[in-house]
Specification:
It is a single chain. By secondary structure, the protein is an alpha+beta fold. It has one domain. Helices cover 53% and strands 18% of the residues. The protein is built from 3 helices and 4 strands. The chain has a 4-stranded mixed sheet with strand order 1-2-4-3. The relative contact order is 0.13.
């Protein structure tokens, strides 16, 4: 699998996944604690910018961003799905961080 690191801070990588259709897909790999973006490099960078921007927001700002995306059109539905994925990733990472600190 070919990959390119797009954000070390948030562990975001662009990957080439054999057998996947064209388009943009965002996955979370819990085993490696990586956010994987499957897309062409330009789309992957734009998607990474969206993800980084969202993860840099405060909890209140994230809630407001989700609300705005939820009232939008089909493109905003895709963004809402990514925001939900990122909220789950944030919860998982907080849990992992607490588990590491307690060792």
């Amino acid at each position: 699998m070919d990959f390119e690191v797009l954000s070390e801070k948030y562990r975001i990588v662009s990957v080439s996944i054999p057998g996947e259709d064209a388009g943009i897909s965002v996955y979370y790999s819990g085993r490696q604690d990586l956010i994987l973006i499957k897309a062409g490099i330009k789309d992957a960078e734009t998607t990474a910018d969206l993800i980084i921007g969202y993860l840099d927001l405060s909890n209140k700002e994230r809630s407001e961003a989700r609300e705005l995306a939820e009232v939008g059109d089909e493109i905003d539905k895709w963004v809402t799905d990514i925001f939900r994925l990122l909220d789950n990733v944030t919860r998982i990472r907080k849990h992992l961080s607490k588990a590491r600190q307690s060792k």
